[in-house]
Amino acid sequence: MTSLPAVNQSKEASASARAEATRVVLIVAGGIAAYKAPDLVRKLIAVGCEVQVVTTPAASAFCTELSLATVSGRPVRQSLLDAAEEGRVGHIEIADWAELVLVAPATADIMARAAAGVANDLATTILLATRAPVLWAPAMNSNMWSHPATQANLELLRARGAAFVGPDRGELACGWIGEGRMIDPPTIAAAARALVDRQPHPDLRSRASQDARTSWAGRKLVVTAGPTRAYLDPVRFISNASTGAMGFAIARAAAERGAEVVLVAGPVALETPPGVQRVDVETGAQMLEACEDTLQDANVDLVAMVAAVADLIPAEPSPGKLGKDRVLESFLAMRWRAEVDILATLTSRHQPRTRFLGFAAQTVDASARANDDERVSAELRRLGQAKLERKGCDALFVNRVGVPGVGFGSPTNAGLMLFAEGGEPVDAGGPRPKLALAEWMLDQLAARWWPGEGGS
After folding, report:
1. Cα 331 to chain center, whole Å?
2. Model confidence, pTM
3. In the chain, where are the structural domains located?
4. Looking at residue 383, what is its pLDDT?
5. Domain 21-206 class?
6. Do domains 21-206 and 212-449 have the same CATH topology?
């Protein structure tokens, strides 16, 4: 007689736990790592989540709906046009129900479709319709992960607020060894819990952790970005390949961390990051004037000189448009002078009150093979150290250009951070999205210059 109330109490406790659980929609895409999905569901439940599984059609080849329904305790959804559910507009109902949408495994395909705003199945429709945070756990071949298209999609999704956990390095199903393996389910579940609870997590690659968002609060930054132009006549100019993406990424990351940011931008077609004050310029002289105006008006903690300033400008550009038949003749006869050295000028006038971060995009002798990491690193260090001393800046980030995956026009970048006070250069590691690299740079600077105030 006493067992029945105990059973009833157990059912009531179970119902109460479900009511308090975090509602997670787990999207399982069609990769080999989908076989880990049942274990991931268990781990999510163990950290206090109620899980609704949604699969893509391809996922069924790697994991059965029966196994997922059994461990989640809910029917698995796959069809966008499910007659039994669409009377209630089921795909929107799921999107609204979720407190977190987790995509694991996240294949290159579903990342690409989500980045493009495609909604051609239930999974991508939910991703487009939800207002909940989205956490991606990528899993794919190393070449697919490092491909510029995938990295561009990654950066776009992160710029829209998505977070990433993984991928890990290791042996992949295809036989390759490298980055692309889906990170283990316990880590994914812990990162999901941390994201919902707005807590920092070492494996959670969100745009910035809660601590990082406040580490630069109250500081003021000036960031320069993009190219400058050297006009030959009113319509023709010489410039360079800078797109401004790295500088805009630093401005965005700093603003997200609570800094007041003035972005002095050369002629680029990029949207102004939220919360950033933008000043548009064309020439090096205009860029120097804009920086000086800001530095004179307020105490500035850091100037990040990311812009690629033209090295030479015509001493006397033509006041009128040069005729087509005279362009080459005029070009050869034109006298040139060095453009103003903005970084060296500013450091000489405003240190030590303001710290300066310089950038150096360098080529390395073609005889140094792309995979000759030691030789490339040594050469970048030599070139960067020379520029660090010549410019008089407090730190300098030097990266290699002219190879795939880094530098101008690439969504990813890599390089070394050098500091004027000495010590070993800090390697940023393999190519990573520029926004992620910007966050890494801010962490390095805060840890070196303002320890105990949010640097990591």
Report:
1. 41
2. 0.56
3. 21-206, 212-449
4. 85
5. alpha beta
6. yes
Residues pairing with 77 in the sheet: 54
d(CA 100, CA 89): 19
Q: What is the rounded CA–CA span in Å between residue 29 and residue 114? A: 12
Tokens representing 336? 């040139």
pLDDT in tens, 99-122: 999 999 999 999 999 999 999 899
Which residues form the catalytic set?
Answer: 174
Fold of the domain built from segment(s) 212-449: Rossmann fold (3.40.50)
Chain centroid, CA 364 distance in Å: 26
How many helices (H) and strands (E) the chain has is answered by 16, 22
Segment 228-286, tens digit of pLDDT: 998 888 878 888 888 899 999 999 989 888 899 999 999 998 889 888 999 999 999 99
CA distances from 51 to 67, 167, 192, 324, 375 (A): 13, 22, 12, 68, 50
d(CA 40, CA 240): 48
Contacts of 400 (CB under 8 A, 6+ apart): 361, 362, 363, 364, 376, 380, 406, 407, 414, 415
| Structural contact between residues 22 and 196, judged by C-beta atoms closer than 8 angstroms | yes
Residue 378 contacts residue 365 (beta carbons within 8 Å): no
DSSP designation for 184: P
Residue 116 to residues 31, 113, 120, 128, 148: CA-CA distances in angstroms? Answer: 20, 5, 11, 10, 15
DSSP letter string over 31-46? SGGGGGHHHHHHHHHH
